[in-house]
Amino acid sequence: MPESRDVLPERPLPQFPEPDTEAFWAATAGHRLTYQVCGNCGQIVFYPRRHCTGCTGGDLEQRDSAGRGTVYSFTVIRQHRQPFFRARVPYVVGLIDLDEGFRMLAEIDAPPDAVRVNQRVAVGWEDHTGLSVPVFRPEPAGHTGGRSAQQPLQQLVDGIGA
Ligand SMILES: [Zn+2]
């Protein structure tokens, strides 16, 4: 049977073996978002790699993130040549500042007009065989108890006053 237009194209996924990122992707299968911390200088390292970005040492420990953070910036993808992504436009890709101190690029699963800078987001998972893709979603209003939601605005105010 010829390929139907009703069959959605599949997401391109990482190919293994890939020594630098394999441990990261293995953790995602259990819905664990991980980052690295240098045992020598304490540098937080993301994306995963073999050598510290602070001291070039190789003593990197993999730690679990709580998967919560703030939108640093984002863009709306409105056209794409790859079939999987073309079927999703428009969609949002953002830089997320995780609470543990690292920044990652990821999709934000929300309508483009519902995403804003400094918004609180939490990781969710798109499951595949052997790994899951982290996709962030806005936290419901009030989920953080209100105080955290006000913090970015307060930082802006402090910045203006400085
Ligand atoms: Zn280091």
Mean pLDDT: 88
Structural class, from secondary structure content? alpha+beta
Percentage of residues in helical conformation:
10-25%
Count of discrete alpha- or pi-helical segments spanning 4 or more residues: 3
Unreliable runs:
145-162
Record the strand order, biggest sheet: 4-5-6-8-7
Envelope shape: globular
Q: Could you say which small molecules are bound to this protein?
A: zinc ion
Provide the β-strand percentage band: 25-35%
Q: Span from first to last CA?
A: 67 Å
Total domain units: 1
Count the strands?
A: 8
**What is the ordering of alpha helices and beta strands?**
HEEEEHEEEEH
Question: Main sheet?
Answer: 5 strands, mixed, barrel
> What Rg is obtained from the alpha carbons, in whole angstroms?
18 Å
Can you offer a commentary on this structure?
This protein is α+β, with helices and mostly antiparallel strands and 162 residues long. It has one domain. Helices cover 16% and strands 34% of the residues. It has helices at residues 22-28, 83-86, 147-161, and strands at residues 33-38, 44-45, 60-65, 68-77, 91-98, 103-108, 120-128, 131-138. The strands form two sheets. Strands 4-5-6-8-7 form a five-stranded mixed barrel. Strands 2-1-3 form a three-stranded antiparallel beta sheet, with helices on one face. The longest helix has 15 residues, at 147-161. The protein binds zinc ion. Zinc ion (ZN) binds next to loops. Zinc ion binds at residues 38, 40-41, 43, 52, 54-55, 57.
